Amino acid sequence: MPLPRRRLRHLPWVALLLIGLIGGPLQAAPPIAGTLHSTGSETLASLMLRWGEALEARHPGVRLQLQASGSSTAPPALVAGSTRLGPMSRPMSESERAAFEAAHGYAPLAVPVALDALAFFVHRDNPVAALSLAQLDAIFSDTRRCGAAAPLERWDALRPTLSGDISRYGRNSASGSHGVVRRLALCGGDFRLDVGELMGSAAVVAAVGSDPRGIGYAGLGYLRSGVRALGLVGEDGTVVRPTAEAALAGDYPLTRPLYLYLNLVPGEPWPPLERAFVELVLSAEGQAIVEELGFVALPPPRLAAIRREIGLAPP
Amino acid sequence: MIDFSSLAVRRRQRWRQVRDRLATLLISACGIGVIVAVLAIGVFLVMAAWPLFSAPRVTAESASPGVEVAYPLQAPLPAGLEAWLREQRLERPPRALDERLWLAEAHRLARIDLAGEAPTLVARLPVVAPERRISAVASLAGGRSLIIADDAGGLRRWLVEERPPWLRLAKTYRDRGTPIEALWVRPGSRQFLVRDAAGLSLYDALAGERWRGELPAGEALGFDGEGHLLWRGEGVVRRLAIEAPHAEIDWRTLWLPQPYEGHAAPQQRWQSAGEGSLDEPKYGLTPLAWGTLKAAAYALLFAVPLALGAAVFSACYLPRRLRHRLKPTLELMEALPGVVIGFIAGLVLAPFVERHLAGSLALIVLLPLAMLLAGGLWAWLPTALRRHLPLGWAGLWLMPWLALWVALALWASPWLEAAWFGGDLRGWLAASLGLDVEQRNALIVGLAMGFAVIPSIFALAEDALSGVPASLGEGAQALGATRWQTLWKVLLPAAGPGVFSAVMIGAGRAVGETMIVLMATGNTALMSVNPLEGLRSFAANLAIELPEAVPGGTHYRVLLLSALLLFLFTFVVNTLAELVRRRLKRRYRRLGAGR
Amino acid sequence: MRRAGRPRGEGPWPWLAAGSLALSLLMLAALLLLLAGRGLGHFWPAPVVLVTLDDGHQLAGQPVREERRRTLEGHWVRERLYRVGNRDLDGEAWRWVEVGRIVAEETPEAWAVIERRRWGELIVRPLALEEAGRRLTEAPLWSAFEARLERGRALAEERDALREEVIAPLARRLAAGHDDAAARERLVAAQARVAELQAAMARDVLVVESAAGERLSVPLAEITAAWRPNAMSPAEKLLAWGSNLWHFLSEGPEAANSAGGVWPAIFGTVLMVLLMSLLVTPFGVLAAVYLHEVAPQGRLTGWVRIAVRNLAGVPSIVYGVFGLGVFVYGLGGRLDAWFFAETLPSPTFGTGGLLWASLTLALLTLPVVIVATEEGLARIPDQQREAALALGATRAEMLRRVVLPMALPAMLTGVILAIARAAGEVAPLMLVGVAKLAPQVPVDGDFPYLHLERKFMHLGYHVFDVGFHGGDVEAALPLVYATALLLVGVILVLNLTAILLRHHLRARHAAPGTR
């Protein structure tokens, strides 16, 4: 099966450069130390872990403590103040934002840190290459708000040479992926009751990879050799494959930005720990990690714009 | 001198007594404290779940000065729409506005879509009996439910659909009564107030009427920012504070099918809302209770025969020396953590069984046959060989024999499938028996959890069987009974209650086991008996959802209620088992067990 | 007991009973063997196989497992999974290959497995070494490479030591507001040295070639380990196996928990269990003594006893719910309001942590200790107590001098059983304080040395987390096996101790007067 080639053959040189650079700016920087707590998205967990490792390499006195059981755990933790850093794989809802403002008196700061394309995965044996959103709705939803008349129960209905009923895998309701798929692919309807609620994206991919009749959704970064990512058929019949390019260009509809939500008092200077962390995340090194883990890195112009917006010096 | 020393002795004596009192006091205090702390679990759960069932209240209080109407009683129409309505001469009938406009025309409701450039009349729908008139219409948050009241006192909830018949009746709160004058939906919730000539009522869209009271004099102004109703009467503005944080919960919405938005028929559903407040949270506990019991039932179905068989064999046939070795080994099995068993079951066993479905299902029949075959073959063995394979040791030397059969069945799995099921067992099951097959299913949970509860059932049943006074069994054998006859006619009736209590304890464990169910199922809140479909249990649901629930909210409290149910269930089951066990012990003592 | 005569007329039932026992044991054995095989096998350096496919393509990888299944289109396939590494080159570190398409397999000695800090493993053929862009001609290549790798490792060690032992404490000191010039100077000097070391480490580069013929330059500083499995003798492999195992036990997790070791999880588990036993032992024993020796033996006590016994059967997740509601939200929130008001709204104790986890588990295991201790107390003959009292001892003295020493083994059994149960419980911990990654262990050199409010890692939760949350389940699976094996090992050892202790205890009471 041909897989997309990474265009990162030059990575070692970037890494070399970075290793060389780390020593440089550090001499002038004021020492930073302490523990950074983070509660939130499971999708971002691996990213946060790697960013944490990189941060520790930059600033040896710093530690990152991570809890990751779903995006919905971030707003309560931010509201309660048990964390200042809430990674979320979806934007905060109105009510969550209102709860935050009621508790603290100001709005949380949302920093987009990467893009993630949600992909629907099928087993590697499965010859189906692309589905439309209405078909996905007919597979996954029992309210079928996107307009399909009948549910899709078997693979034969999609392609006559196949046989077997469809096994559906998904995430638990706390996860951002669950919410995004509900909003974008099911038109806000309900999931069928027999969509498995697994505790992690990796578990979804593992389950689909071992079940020839399976279909499930997870971030594009979880693509493994046991599964294939489905393209999406648009209304005009064109197929968009979930790739970094399509996500960046905005062609792939199931693309979502990943956010870091921060509890910062507006007008006051950033606390050094949070500043160092966001600084790292929005640097070339931080975005290289994004790419390494299979997410879509933000292009440099967009990075610069974000940095300007939140008041960080340009890199 | 003597007096002095006796004084010292007496003083020491008194000091010892004081110390004794102190120590007793300390022990009592600690002991009672600890026991109370342990028992507090039940109290805490009851207290945490209690507010769910406290009746909603609406109380009139003086409004703080400067309070303003944040949400008017009826959303104002956009300017263009107002003009269009005038043009159509449809000015002030009862109406509701969401993504569409709903206008009452006598007994019919007009649906006007606003999505296009100009408003379009889609349909006129008769929603009340022809002799009645619609007196009020309101649309719930999200625009997928309409509440329609009429002048004969009828109050109904209709679900909005995207294709004809456009509206579907979901629930009749009441059919007749005092004519209804107005409907006001509380902002940001699924509750609404109903004003009729006789009074004011608070309704929840699912649970129906939750409060009814007298109508204060004056008129309603609108809702303030917190969703309380502002009311002007006798020249002063007052506030009707509505305290109904958990109005959607009563025993009916928890346990009975409910007409949820988007579904044609009432449903048993557990789907907590998660993101966004516009969705209707669905707190049906029945599927979870079902899943819990289903998992436990399949676990027991697997574990009870094995554990009792093993216990019987151990109590009646095993040589003493071997028994002393074997019991601790099976106790070690009990210590295996659920997370390890769950991981093996979910990530290794489930895909494996799915690939070898035919072989695995065949094993259910094949293994007992293999055991019997071993018995048959053994009887034909030459005596010399049989002496090397005594029946008492069969529990050990049957292991490789059974392993051989397992391997054989799995190896032959594809041929089995090809020969009997046209090569596709899953398809055959779906087509001829109507059974869906999920990879992570109740069978896997039954296997894994059964494995986890075998040791506890085994240990207790074995204790009960081997505790039967030896004189009974010896008497039976002396009269010529075989060991099996002794067991069946003498030991089992004597130890029956103990065996029963062992099974009960096993059931208690299976109901509460978390990690195995969490990892080995797909956590799908289905209600089916099909062993090849998934399930979602109370315990797994708690582990998945409690960390995200906001403390004090409805979701949190419903979860705590489910924890209370688990607690009560296991507590009652265990108490029963313990009482039975005690009675049995007394009986053995009476029968003269000299242990 | 009758010896093995021919048991006429017993019928088929005994065989079914024997079969049940055999089947139970078989399952137990299969589970343990699976854990041991997969868990320990992971550390063995597997050979690299160079596979040629029928279309002429080649791939180099380590075979992992085979699968035979029916496809959706109704035919059977047999596939083999290879770990091929090179994720930055091919986009994927794993390849499923249809077995029928394999034309040739060989195990050439030159192929190496190279572990890197980023992008996972490489499975490649080393071509040459470069120093600052200049190609070296040292021969043989592999030993030269190993020597330079060793040099790099020494530099990295010095750098890490500097970071951990000099820069981190200084930075913490300065960040806490102790501003003094000497410290600042030392910090700058250390940072300069680190920069120097970094530059020195970046000097050497290894040029490698993949099976598809692509070339890649890998800086030696990026390489954490490298070996040529096909060129290793069994003794070398055994050595490598031991050292891998040691790394697993002694190091922290890497690469988003999907590689590296489990040391913080071992530490967290042990510490939590230790704290729990410190809490549960005195209270459990006191409650048992109260129930058995002090409380009036009426109907109420009988009911309380049954209730306590039954609490041992209440699901652990319910205890977790209690811990979350009462300890974390209730007690913790109160503590924060009283003592840590200055850090609010960030909670100190108002969030899950070590203390609450240990308390919750102590509550969970309390019934176990109470029941076991009570059983021990019940075994002591009443004559012993009566004799002590008759000799003029008060009740406290009788308890302290006579009863408790005799019940000591029973208490110990109870505590060990409690520990064994607590070590394996995961569900309540998910609610009250376990963390996915908490590299900062709860004990360190900062006052007050033991940080009860911190979150901690746990072996059992690590199994769940890595198996279900990790980025690459395929890569993490062997680690999960190894972690699970470790957890099971710890628990089995604890249980065995309890069983032996109980055995010893029973033996002693069976023969009175030997004391």
TrEMBL record, chain A:
Domain of life: Bacteria
Pfam families listed in its UniProt record: PBP_like_2
Matching InterPro entries: PBP_domain (IPR024370), Phosphate_ABC_transporter (IPR050811)
PANTHER family: PERIPLASMIC PHOSPHATE BINDING COMPONENT OF PHOSPHATE ABC TRANSPORTER (PTHR30570), PHOSPHATE-BINDING PROTEIN PSTS (PTHR30570:SF6)
Keywords, alphabetical: Signal
Domain PBP residues, every copy: 28-285
Name of the protein described by the UniProt record: Phosphate ABC transporter substrate-binding protein
CDD domains cross-referenced by the UniProt entry: PBP2_phosphate_like_1 (cd13653)
Species assigned in the record: Bisbaumannia pacifica
UniProtKB/TrEMBL annotation, chain B:
Source organism superkingdom: Bacteria
Keywords carried by this UniProt record: Membrane, Transmembrane, Transmembrane helix, Transport
Xref: SUPFAM superfamilies: MetI-like
Transmembrane annotation, as ranges: 21-50, 295-318, 330-353, 359-381, 393-412, 442-461, 558-580
Cellular component GO terms held in the UniProt record: plasma membrane
BP terms from Gene Ontology: transmembrane transport
Chief location of this protein within or outside the cell: membrane
Domain called ABC transmembrane type-1: residue spans: 289-577
Compartments it resides in: Cell membrane
Membrane topology, record value: Multi-pass membrane protein
InterPro entries documented for this protein: MetI-like, MetI-like_sf
The family this protein is said to belong to: Belongs to the binding-protein-dependent transport system permease family.
Name used for this protein in its record: Phosphate ABC transporter permease
Gene assigned in the entry: pstC
UniProtKB/TrEMBL annotation, chain C:
GO molecular function, one term: phosphate transmembrane transporter activity
Domain ABC transmembrane type-1, first and last residues per copy: 266-498
SUPFAM superfamilies named in the record: MetI-like (SSF161098)
Principal location class: membrane
Topology within the bilayer: Multi-pass membrane protein
KW Cell membrane (keyword) present: yes
Transmembrane segments: 262-291, 311-332, 352-372, 402-423, 479-501
PROSITE patterns xref list: ABC_TM1 (PS50928)
One Pfam family hit: BPD_transp_1
GO CC terms of this entry: plasma membrane
Superkingdom per UniProt: Bacteria
Cell location: Cell inner membrane; Cell membrane
Record key words, sorted: Cell membrane, Membrane, Transmembrane, Transmembrane helix, Transport
One BP term from GO: phosphate ion transmembrane transport
Family the UniProt entry places it in: Belongs to the binding-protein-dependent transport system permease family. CysTW subfamily.
NCBIfam families: 3a0107s02c
Protein name: Phosphate transport system permease protein PstA
Native organism: Bisbaumannia pacifica
